[in-house]
Amino acid sequence: MDKLFERHDDYMEKVPMDFVRGLAGHIDWNLRLIAIKGPKGVGKSTLMQQYIKQHFAPDDRHVLYCSADTSYFTSHSLVDTADMFYKRGGRYLFIDEVHKYDGWSREVKEIYDLHRDLHLVVSGSSLLQINDGQADLSRRLVQYTMPGLSFREFLAMNRIIDIKSVSLDQILKAPNAFCREVKRYCQPLEFFSRYLKEGYYPFYFENQTIYQNLVESVVNYTIDTELTRFRGIEMGSCRKVKALLKVLSQMVPYEVDISKLSKNIGIQRPTTLKYLKNLEEAALIQRLFTDVDSISDLQKPDKILLDNSNLLYTLADTAPEIGTVRETFFCNQLVSAGHKVEYGGLKSGDFRIDNDVIIEVGGKDKGFKQIADEENAYVAADDIDSATTHKIPLWAFGFLY
């Protein structure tokens, strides 16, 4: 236990505090059992450490941060660790990388049931299985999903502008007032193209020169390690999953032809659909449907986008098509902010948001022809910095979280 506290102190001493992600303010930290899920590299560990540093004194032994991905847990169980910590007065236990500990959910349930006034926060992969068949945590655990940086957070971490996030309704109702407020502090278009290429993962601020190499490492780790472990993909099939992702990075995202996609990769159609579902669960792609409420488990998506635009620039052999980049950014920011995003169809706008709002995404000259017959419809246009009633800068949708 003393060794864990020594490591805890090291973590707290080194954690940066100049910027705290917006998700920290949305988590109810008073709950007894919390899981923070998200893809590798988005800052889950940092978020937990920052919360501890903000709310506990440096020598407070009522709180402990540890990682299940350490040698300590090769000879100590989660249950025994929690029990020892509790008996020494501990009341707030943070366990990082919990998905790397076999049988974690059974032991977390046991800890929860045994120690009624112990607060437990765990973090893990996007693919984290909350229940493993023997432990039912669904009634006990509250999950929060952590995406990468929004454009707003990217600007804040660059110390360019730090303003609160806004709701979609605020942007749609008073877009020009919002744009004027942002432009009081900066010219957002000066930084937007950089964010699209290399601003989504927080490790951008640690080493910019090898950023795309680090993004590729995230992709490889997710496929080679997490999909094989949590979704049963055989190691020999990982190459085909990566090939599928590579093809998707070079597609213009119109109608999806699963048969053609399967043929290009050399796999069967059902396998392609399974891989697409797995890649979405791993936060590497977004599958879009015209009616998300009525889809079956392995239904063919109507549109496929990579999860974020940084993945496009990393995986594509040539510069990605700008229309694809714009749609990828828009979809990512809306989904990350908690909105339901559906494919608008060929005869409507690109996206339907929350069953209500139609959005067409394009360049600065994009007109309203595609959405002329829609009542609650807008154009999200790139390369503009001011808004009209129904034409809003694309970058503005990066301030939703």
Task: Report the uncertain regions.
Answer: none
If strands are numbered along the chain, what order do they take across the biggest sheet? 2-3-4-1-5
- Percentage of helical residues? 25-40%
The description of the largest β-sheet is: 5 strands, parallel
Describe the model.
There is one protein chain. The chain has helices at 2-14, 44-55, 78-87, 104-114, 151-157, 168-173, 175-183, 189-198, 211-230, 238-249, 258-265, 269-281, 309-315, 322-336, and strands at 33-37, 63-67, 92-96, 119-124, 142-145, 285-288, 303-306, 341-343, 351-353, 357-362, 377-381, 391-393. A five-stranded parallel β-sheet has the order 2-3-4-1-5. The two termini are 38 Å apart. Strand 2 (63-67), helix 3 and strand 3 (92-96) form a beta-alpha-beta unit. Helices cover 38% and strands 13% of the residues. It has two domains: 2-145, P-loop containing nucleotide triphosphate hydrolases (Rossmann fold), CATH 3.40.50; 151-399, no CATH class. The chain has 401 residues and is α/β, with parallel strands linked by helices.
